[in-house]
């Protein structure tokens, strides 16, 4: 059993599991899948005030805290007990392209040249981690939800705003990956 769990799974496995979560949430509890709303719930719970955006019954969304907590616990368990010491397999063409940006360490899940405490205080690190985190948070709030809320839940509910948001997410991702990221990696 552990052999099966620790081996890489096909990419479509996650799609099937996520695809089953959406109807399960709707059928079992009339709940909507999404992650970014948890920040709003946490603010409403921890900082009660008269701000209209935070004035609602956040306790109805308590299940979502457990969902996000499960994601965190699952990540910790998989890192500590199900991890592999083998280097991540990167396609040779991608490895060659990344080498032109000074990225060659694929021993972890993410390149150490990009995601480490030493690189956080570099221009590239600040732009990618701090700037990117801000833009993701701002974008999720501006779009009225994150990619999981819109692309998974909203599209399955046939919501036009979710279709528009998902198209914008995809366009932004293509622009970032093909034009902005190469520029940032050269900083």
From TrEMBL:
Checking Pfam families in the record gives: Sulf_transp (PF04143)
Q: Which domain of life is it from?
A: Bacteria
Name the predominant localization: membrane
Database matches in InterPro entries: Sulf_transp_TsuA/YedE
Give the bilayer topology. Answer: Multi-pass membrane protein
What are the TM regions of this chain, as residue ranges? 12-30, 62-82, 121-143, 163-185
Q: What does the UniProt entry say about where the protein is found? A: Cell inner membrane
The UniProt keywords, alphabetically, are: Cell inner membrane, Cell membrane, Membrane, Transmembrane, Transmembrane helix, Transport
Which spans of this chain does the record mark as coiled coil? none
Q: Which family does it belong to?
A: Belongs to the TsuA/YedE (TC 9.B.102) family.
Matching entries from PANTHER family are given as: INNER MEMBRANE PROTEIN YEDE, SULPHUR TRANSPORT DOMAIN-CONTAINING PROTEIN
The protein depicted here goes by the name YeeE/YedE thiosulfate transporter family protein
Q: What is the lineage of its organism?
A: Bacteria, Pseudomonadati, Bacteroidota, Cytophagia, Cytophagales
């Amino acid at each position: 059993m552990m052999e099966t769990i620790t081996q890489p799974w096909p990419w479509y496995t996650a799609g099937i599991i996520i695809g089953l979560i959406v109807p399960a949430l709707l059928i079992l509890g009339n709940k909507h899948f999404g992650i970014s709303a948890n920040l709003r719930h946490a603010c409403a719970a921890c900082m009660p005030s008269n701000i209209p955006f935070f004035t609602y019954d956040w306790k109805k969304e308590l299940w979502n805290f457990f969902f996000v907590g499960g994601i965190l616990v699952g990540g910790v368990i998989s890192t500590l007990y199900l991890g592999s010491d083998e280097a991540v397999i990167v396609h040779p063409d991608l490895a060659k392209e990344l080498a032109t940006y000074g990225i060659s360490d694929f021993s972890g899940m993410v390149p150490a040249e990009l995601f480490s405490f030493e690189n956080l205080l570099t221009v590239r690190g600040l732009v990618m981690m701090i700037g990117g985190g801000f833009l993701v948070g701002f974008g999720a709030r501006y779009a009225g939800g994150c990619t999981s809320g819109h692309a998974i839940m909203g599209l399955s509910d046939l919501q036009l705003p979710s279709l528009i948001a998902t198209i914008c997410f995809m366009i932004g991702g293509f622009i970032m990956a093909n034009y902005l990221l190469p520029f940032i990696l050269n900083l």
